[in-house]
Amino acid sequence: MTGRGVAVVIGGYGAVGRVVATTLARGSAHEVVVAGRDLARAEALARTGPGGLIPRGLDLADPGGLDGLLADATVVVMCVEQRNEVVARACLDSGVSFVDVSASADVLAGIERLDATAKRTGAAAVLSVGLAPGLTNVLARRCVDRLPSAISVDVTILLGTVGDHGPDSVRWTVAGLMAPPDGARRPGRARVELPGFGPRAAHQFPFSDQYTLTRNLGVPVTTRLCFDSAAVTAALFRLRAVGAFRLAGRLGWARMLAGASSRLRLGGDRFAVHVSATDDGGGHVWSAVTGRRECHATGVVAAEIATGLLDRRYRPGVHHIDQIVDAGVFLTTVQRHDLTVHEHPQPSPAELPADRMPTTQEG
Question: Residue 188 gets which letter from DSSP?
Answer without folding.
Answer: S
